[in-house]
Amino acid sequence: xxxxxxxxxxxxxxxxxxxxxxxxxxxxxxxxxxxxxxxxxxxxxxxxxxxxxxxxxxxxxxxxxxxxxxxxxxxxxxxxxxxxxxxxxxxxxxxxxxxxxxxxxxxxxxxxxxxxxxxxxxxxxxxxxxxxxxxxxxxxxxxxxxxxxxxxxxxxxxxxxxxxxxxxxxxxxxxxxxxxxxxxxxxxxxxxxxxxxxxxxxxxxxxxxxxxxxxxxxxxxxxxxxxxxxxxxxxxxxxxxxxxxxxxxxxxxxxxxxxxxxxxxxxxxxxxxxxxxxxxxxxxxxxxxxxxxxxxxxxxxxxxxxxxxxxxxxxxxxxxxxxxxxxxxxxxxxxxxxxxxxxxxxxxxxxxxxxxxxxxxxxxxxxxxxxxxxxxxxxxxxxxxxxxxxxxxxxxxxxxxxxxxxxxxxxxxxxxxxxxxxxxxx
Length: 426
Ligand SMILES: [Zn+2]
Fold this sequence. Notes:
By secondary structure, the chain is α/β, with parallel strands linked by helices. Helices cover 39% and strands 16% of the residues. The chain folds into two domains: 20-91, Metallocarboxypeptidase-like (Alpha-Beta Plaits); 115-232 and 260-425, Zn peptidases (Aminopeptidase), CATH 3.40.630.10. Residues 181, 184, 309 line the site of zinc ion.
């Protein structure tokens, strides 16, 4: 008995410690009244290098900011002094993620034998196995491409899905990728579900999507960061590259600030420990170079690009410096159709999707995948921020199936509109 008790205590200790680095950290909702509040919060979070979980929009959406126990009172005092309302969103981040882990474990157990990777939070190896299996089972439809390796040497793979093996130049290409930001776990399932619906479970009403369009689907752009977020630091967002000339304590860069488009200008931090550090140069990261090369190879027919993130219910387009591409009306029309299609299926507890230029309705950025796609000639280049139902990065696994189906409806609508705009360009 004694030995068993000891083992149980040990197991409990190990589990309890998984997220200890966030012990005492709290997350606070902040209500922004106007743009000057927004500027104030941005300057405050930048100067203290705070982790912003959700950017706020004045009068529309609260910011979510994580505070450590040492600076919490000072930050809240600053907000109070300015008359900015705030509230406690999460009392203890470590505890919150332990609870989330437990939900995921229970979900896996309750679905044992029936669990498929797109209804779960699959590890890199499980995603890899799924891609390999699909490619092996549907060789006439699917080509698996190993696009190169991440910094730590993981293969970054994508599927090409086509009824004509990418040889019919009258078809547009739809490119989607997920998980450039490691902690946004719910993004990869939506990419996998798109593969599932195109290949394993094609419905009659979607047959045109398979026949008229060629697809490139890349489910994990940043596998190093993703695995690190599972094994070590749950809120890891960046890549995992090491550059000792820059820092010997902070590794990686924000992949979505690392593209060669207005690089290192807006919405970035020069602090190599910041979540928005853009790197020492554009395309310093192998992961972003892989996306660059995909654009390069397929740009002639690539009509639409969907860079999938979590969370916030946004469909966003360029440019991040508040200038608009010449086809902004088309971008808005297609983005709005996507938002409407997803809203038509929304759960009561979900936010409505908002659609617009990323800088005008959310915040300025530079070096983003969305902007790079637009710059190099993808007419319809988007950032998609999936819903979180108030659970930020802890979306309970029970919601994944719904997000997948809802997002697929949005993707289907945009694919058909992209087919129309592509044909109009020919
Ligand atoms: Zn993101």
